[in-house]
């Protein structure tokens, strides 16, 4: 037996004979180049690949909880060796990581990266049979709050004094550009589906591939997250072909006297005409090669809802049953949970979401009929003749009265929707980790707060996404940014991550452009003008550059591309500024969208952080065919960078083409060419600016005389 001293000498000799492990060369992920097929079905053979530096390791192993696979070196390309193994997929979930050995040294590789120990929380995962629609991966989405987008039909506008809601009569705003009040739930500008139809060519020209509508169903509010009737598009967004009745008199709050409103939203002629218009518009959207996502508000409805009828507008109407608020014997009684059962008629003791009586919580556990009806709704709108392409689900984690029921419901919801339309997407709103719902049998993906909006906002602005707080310690903090992104991205399987909705702004938060001014507060304290003051377009352009190059579906909130500002809800819901747009910003969006949507690599390719430092973030997107480098300088000073682009498989001696540079005053797509030396690129990036560089096959021959 050898002594410990002899073993140490042997180890030192072995390590001296071998170059040290190049940890930055180690790589694998769930994209189609490293997992083939990327979305396997039970019975498939799956080839899994792992990358190392050439001639740098002794062995690569793939570990599952039950089996260890010894991977075989199958290819050497440039600086890298590529190891492979093949596993047969059953109907069981597969989790795995990699072990790399060189000499007496070993390390592990998982979704977070290289580590000295095995970390099960970061293991790769394959769920047999789980896939997300290809059309959604990397798709350019556009969110529309319809009332604020464009008024295409003035005959369906909500009228002043048409009805009473919460604490005011409905109000038709005097002009499109008029500021909303601090409490604006019943203020309307007249945007409608006809207005969307008239702007479809604009959206197509911008490069939009998917339209995500905030709720369209009958509702008394301008945001429509308090649904009145799940079966019909609101006639104020659709068509009003029968229009009789009276407006409310001043001071009257009893909506039984709102006969004009009652006729508009309960008359089946109006409801059917509105559904027909929706079908026509979806056809036109599809004819332009775009998709449609509807907003599903299934956790709660509204106090106006026909099943509850707290406003008593359905009471006595032909074709409508008595609401649960009105009669204990209502067929909808168990759709809601009442706490005082003998308090009828007009029982106010029902559950409200977060205590809001205008948002009655739906009682699924207490009503099989409600459950079945909502499943019918889930299938109805993604089926003919409506043919929507998926659902965005509002506060989806809150549905039901227990986590157990919540997961049970969404599993069944997925089956119903996918049977009705196998190519439909199920995309949920969720704050915090959604990993519990992203196991392949519930949601497809989420609105990406944790692994996009929040880290990007903190790094570039230091602001919380509502503009409620400023965190200077997170501004320009590349360590916090990288750590948050790497950790939170591991909560997704690759198929879910690549269609996650990557937004900078939306209807619930301040506009990103406003966050660049570092003003903490809300419109009721600071006023609307403050949201537009001291904004930084250089920071905003950097954010857009990241949005269009990050894994996922870049999602514009209507008007962001036109320079709309605003503090959090309701100020973020300003009207689209037709005729007053920032056309330079629109051009910038259009050019970046064009680069994104026509690049396989930016839609489906691998992602890797390149060396970052304070103020400066750098990362790559890459496939075998081409590679992109994104450099964002969020500081005021010019920065010299020396980037090891070999890590994303750029050849040792290569030519990179600048596809885009952005800065405070604008942007440029004028080509500029850089030569790498030893797999690295050195350049100076100006303060408060961004660069998008590309390498592709044939660049060395094509651009050799341009460097």
Can you give a write-up of this model?
The chain is α+β, with helices and mostly antiparallel strands and 707 residues long. Helix content is 22%, strand content 22%. It contains 16 helices and 33 strands. The strands form eight sheets. An eight-stranded parallel β-sheet has the order 22-21-20-19-16-11-24-23. Strands 25, 26, 27, 29, 30, 31 and 33 form a seven-stranded antiparallel β-sheet that branches. The radius of gyration is 28 Å and the shape is globular.
Spans of at least 5 consecutive residues with low confidence: none
Order of strands, main sheet, comes to 22-21-20-19-16-11-24-23
The computed structural class is alpha+beta
Give the helix tally: 16
Give the strand content: 15-25%
Main beta sheet: strand number and arrangement? Answer: 8 strands, parallel
């Amino acid at each position: 037996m050898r002594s410990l001293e002899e073993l140490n000498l042997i180890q030192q000799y072995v390590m001296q004979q071998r170059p040290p492990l190049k940890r930055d060369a180690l790589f694998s992920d769930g994209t189609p180049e490293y997992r083939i097929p990327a979305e396997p079905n039970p019975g498939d053979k799956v080839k899994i690949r792992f990358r190392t530096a050439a001639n740098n390791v002794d062995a690569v192993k793939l570990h599952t909880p039950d089996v260890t696979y010894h991977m075989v070196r199958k290819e050497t390309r440039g600086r890298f060796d590529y190891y492979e193994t093949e596993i047969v997929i059953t109907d069981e979930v597969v989790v795995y990581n990699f072990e790399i050995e060189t000499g007496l040294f070993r390390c592990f590789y998982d979704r977070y990266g290289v580590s000295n120990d095995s970390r099960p929380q970061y293991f790769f995962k394959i769920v047999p049979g789980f896939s997300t629609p290809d059309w959604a991966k990397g798709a350019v989405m556009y969110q529309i709050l319809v009332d604020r987008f464009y008024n295409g039909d003035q005959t369906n506008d909500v009228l002043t004094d048409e009805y009473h809601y919460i604490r005011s009569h409905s109000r038709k705003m005097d002009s499109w550009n008029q500021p909303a009040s601090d409490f604006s739930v019943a203020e309307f500008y007249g945007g409608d589906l006809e207005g969307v139809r008239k702007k479809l060519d604009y959206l197509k020209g911008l490069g939009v591939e998917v339209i995500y509508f905030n709720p369209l169903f009958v509702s008394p509010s301008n945001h429509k997250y308090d649904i009145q009737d799940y079966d019909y598009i609101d006639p104020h967004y659709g068509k009003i072909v029968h229009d009789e009745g009276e407006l409310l008199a001043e001071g009257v709050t009893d909506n039984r006297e709102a006969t004009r409103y009652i006729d508009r939203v309960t008359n089946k002629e109006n409801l059917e005409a509105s559904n027909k218009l929706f079908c026509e518009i979806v056809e036109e959207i599809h004819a332009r090669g775009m998709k449609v996502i509807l907003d599903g508000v299934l956790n709660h409805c509204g106090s106006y809802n026909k099943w509850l009828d707290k406003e008593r507008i359905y009471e006595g109407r032909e074709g409508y049953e008595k609401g649960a608020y009105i009669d204990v014997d209502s067929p909808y009684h168990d759709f809601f949970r009442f706490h005082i059962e003998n308090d009828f008629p007009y029982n106010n003791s029902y559950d409200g979401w977060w205590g809001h009586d205008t948002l009655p919580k739906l009682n699924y556990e207490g009503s099989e009929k409600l459950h079945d009806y909502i499943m019918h709704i889930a299938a109805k709108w993604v089926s003919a003749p409506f043919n929507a392409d998926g659902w965005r689900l509002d506060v989806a984690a809150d549905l039901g009265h227990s986590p157990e029921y919540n997961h049970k419901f969404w599993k069944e919801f997925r089956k119903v929707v996918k049977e009705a339309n196998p190519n439909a997407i199920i995309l949920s709103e969720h704050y915090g980790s959604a990993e519990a719902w992203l196991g392949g049998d519930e949601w497809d993906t989420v609105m990406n707060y944790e692994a996009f909006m929040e880290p990007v906002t903190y790094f570039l602005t230091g602001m919380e996404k509502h503009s409620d707080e400023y965190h200077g310690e997170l501004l320009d903090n590349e360590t916090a940014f990288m750590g948050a992104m790497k950790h939170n991205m591991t909560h997704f399987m690759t198929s879910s991550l690549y269609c996650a909705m990557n937004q900078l702004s939306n209807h619930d938060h301040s506009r990103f452009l406003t966050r660049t001014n570092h003003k903490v507060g809300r419109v009721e304290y600071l006023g609307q003008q403050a949201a537009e003051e001291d904004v930084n377009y250089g920071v905003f352009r950097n954010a857009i550059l990241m949005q269009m190059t990050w894994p996922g579906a870049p999602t514009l909130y209507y008007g962001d591309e036109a320079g709309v500002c605003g503090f959090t809800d309701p100020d973020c819901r300003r009207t689209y500024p037709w005729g007053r747009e920032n056309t330079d910003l629109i051009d910038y969006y259009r050019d970046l969208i064009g680069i994104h949507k026509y690049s396989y690599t930016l839609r489906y390719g691998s992602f890797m952080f390149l060396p970052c430092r304070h103020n400066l973030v750098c990362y790559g997107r890459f496939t075998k065919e081409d590679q992109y480098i994104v450099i964002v300088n969020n500081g005021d000073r010019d920065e010299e960078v020396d980037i090891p682009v070999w890590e994303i498989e750029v050849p040792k001696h290569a030519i990179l083409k600048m596809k885009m540079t952005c800065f405070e005053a604008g942007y440029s797509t004028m080509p500029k060419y850089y030569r790498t030396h030893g797999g690295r690129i050195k350049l100076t990036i100006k303060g408060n600016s961004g660069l998008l560089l590309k390498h592709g096959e044939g660049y060395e021959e094509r651009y050799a005389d341009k460097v």
